[in-house]
Amino acid sequence: MSFLDQIVSRLEASAGQRFLTELRENGSVAVTGRDLLSSIAQARRFLSARGLRKGDRVALLAGNGIRWMVMDLAIIAEGLIVVPLYSRQAPSELVTMMKDCSPRLICCGDAALRDSLIQAWPEAPPQVLFDEIFPGEGAGGAEALTLHAVHPHQDSDLVAIIYTSGTSGEPKGVMISSGNVAHILKCTSDRLDILMNHRAGQDRVYQWAPLNFAAAWITTLTGLLRGSSTFMNTDLNRIAKEIREVQPDYFVNVPALLERVRRAVDEQIWKTGGVVRTVYAHAKAAYMRRQEGKRNLADSAWLAMANQLVFPTIRKKMIGSNVKALISGSAPLNLETQLYFKMLGIPVLQVYGLTETTAICTMDDPRNYEVGRVGPAVPGIEMKLGENDEILVRGPNVFPGYWNRPEESAKVLREGWFHTGDQGELSPAGNWKISGRIKNLIILNSGHNIAPEPIEDELLNLLPNAQHVVLVGNGRSYLSAIVTGSATGDEVQSAISTVNSSLPHYKQVRSFRITTEEFTAQNGLLTANGKLKRDAIAGRFTDEIEEMYRAKKAV
Q1: What are the φ/ψ torsions at residue 352 (nearest 5 degrees)?
Q2: Rounded mean pLDDT of 18-35?
Q3: How far apart are CA 30 and CA 24, in angstroms?
Q4: Domain shared by 230 and 262, yes or no
Q5: Same domain, yes or no, for 498 and 540?
Q6: Would you state the pLDDT for residue 144?
Q7: pLDDT at 460 over 60
Q8: CA distance 391 to 539
Q9: What is the rounded distance in angstroms from the CA atom of residue 116 to the CA atom of residue 88?
Q10: Ramachandran area for residue 480 (φ above 0: left; ψ -120 to 50: alpha; else beta)
């Protein structure tokens, strides 16, 4: 039975149960299993009438919502290949992706998205709006339940082409098979069973990340498979408010969001002042000393007071009282941030994976996890270290290749192993740690190879007013840093001095420049999911970089 057959069976078995709730500014809209089956059937009739054949690509360009998931499932059920696209991405980049995969049809969430696409690509394939596919709320009728039969899927059949973010060069279309998805959904569901202590009843899940990203897609499919009640964000500005209202059992985060939450709590308590600030500050210091194996006589008292008077209030205001854990992925999480949430009594479980591994390779075990690591390989998946400590992966989660790029596929799929491009290490307990990206290595003219990410994370942790820290220095004699945001020169210099004190000479940062220019996806300095485009940043700040090395400003 394919993963889609399993999801349909779950929807049938719980036809009256609410599965998806779309959160809107003026209220929410919820749909049951029966509603979803009806809408999927309605979308399938529309697609079938277009004369599409098995293997044809259908692009899905829309913001998060119930209709997005309905279309995704309908496209796959028809034996077609869904190409999910980021609705906030630049039209020119979207056109590049679509020209690469040649969709027969483009499904747009609204007229504005369609119009921006047509303006950038007048020769685009036929486009259709969601309102044309679903002309009325609840349309489809109960009789649509008889039309649910899924197009037969073999494990090798493609179900999606998901484009990578493209930190350097053009994004590549990652082909995802039915077998890839089936294996990962079983792994995620089994791990969530452990987190929820095999509890009967519906999980409450909050879903905010764009559904075109593999991790968000897999999370939502897992919710449908498990019969969870998933609440879908449609406006990123309402995340904090919605989390408190939804009271989720768990939800998936990215490190940047957790960092922002941590800093916001610090700022709010600093403004509050009084006894709360005193207890909070002393308890934080006591907790960090405990992690370092150092403690004094007063530490236990401060932590006891905080656990009684301060931390419960923070937890309740931040995420409510139901949360079992926060789940973090997409990039390594700062160690101090994971410890901070653990101090508050909120476990942060890490997941590691790439689009090419159907979003997941490792997942923390809720019963026993190592802070600072991303957990063991999930069942059925092998991982090992190759040259330069590169992580290699083999298993049913690994993609079959890049769309229309056999040479690129052959570079990363060798002798049955996927070469991730990530550097890592394995603990004696079997938990992995991600050190950085091999292609991001800075090679000094002394021959030293340096992964920039750990140093950047340490600096950023010490600079609450900074947005990003980017190290440069390829072919140079020392490292320098570009810092964005409103941090002052004295603050940056102090942070660099602190970090340098624990680093060997060749890893020390010896010069810096501050810029107020923000790094965003819109100005081409970040990918669609917030990762640094290092080549683009180096090109944008060529003059500043050259000046740093001419001036030889030592820190």
Answers
A1: -125, 140
A2: 94
A3: 11
A4: no
A5: yes
A6: 43
A7: yes
A8: 29
A9: 11
A10: beta
Q: What is the pLDDT of residues 280-294, one digit of tens each?
A: 999 999 998 888 888
Tokens 């079983």 map to which residue?
186
- For 532-541, what is each residue's pLDDT tens digit? 888 889 889 9
Domain boundary among 400, 422, 438: 438
CATH number of the domain encompassing residue 539: 3.30.300.30
| Amino acid in position 396 | P
* Mean local confidence (pLDDT), 410-437: 92
pTM (two decimals): 0.85
Judgement on whether residues 347 and 413 belong to the same structural domain of the protein: yes
- pLDDT band at residue 257 under the 50/70/90 scheme: confident
349 and 245 in one domain? no
Of residues 260, 327, 307, the one with CA closest to residue 485? 260
Q: Which tokens go with 111?
A: 């007229």
Q: Is the dihedral of CA 377, 383, 386, 392 positive or negative?
A: negative
pLDDT grade for 254, boundaries at 50, 70 and 90:
confident
Reduced to 3 states (helix: H, G, I; strand: E, B; else coil), residue 454 is helix
Q: Alpha-carbon distance 129 to 125, whole Å?
A: 13
Strands 417-426 and 413-414: antiparallel
Clarify whether residues 370 and 333 are in a common domain.
yes
In this structure, of 116-125, 206-215, 457-466, 544-553, the range with the lowest mean pLDDT score is 544-553
Q: Which residue has the tokens 């819109």?
A: 522
What is the average pLDDT across 356-363?
Answer: 96
Q: H-type helices in 78-166, by residue range?
A: 91-101, 111-120, 130-133
Write the Ramachandran bin of 198: left for phi over 0, alpha for psi from -120 to 50, otherwise beta. Answer: left
Which of 234, 249, 264 is the last residue before a domain boundary? 249
Residue 110, classed as helix, strand or coil, is coil
Q: Mark whether 402 and 455 lie in a shared domain.
A: no
Please state whether 222 falls in left (phi above 0), alpha (psi between -120 and 50) or beta. alpha
In the numeric block, the tokens 């999910």 are attached to 84
Instruction: Scan for tokens 């082909």, then name that residue.
Output: 175
Average pLDDT, the chain: 90
Q: Name the 3-class secondary structure at 324.
A: coil
% of the chain surpassing 70 pLDDT: 95
Domain co-membership, 278 together with 427: yes
Contact predicate 424/385, CB 8 Å = yes
The mean per-residue pLDDT over the stretch 314-326 comes to 89
What does R_g of the chain's alpha carbons equal in angstroms? 24
The helix (H) or strand (E) run that includes residue 328 is strand 325-328
What distance in Å separates the CA atoms of residue 221 and residue 471, rounded to the nearest whole number? 38
pLDDT for position 168: 54
Write out the residue range of the structural domain in which residue 357 sits: 255-321+324-438
- Residue 160 near residue 84 (C-beta atoms within 8 A): yes
Domain count, the chain: 3
Q: Do 420 and 542 belong to one domain? A: no
Q: Can you name the residues that pair with 304 across neighbouring β-strands?
A: none
The CATH number of residue 433's host domain is: 3.40.50.12780
Which H or E run contains 551? helix 542-551
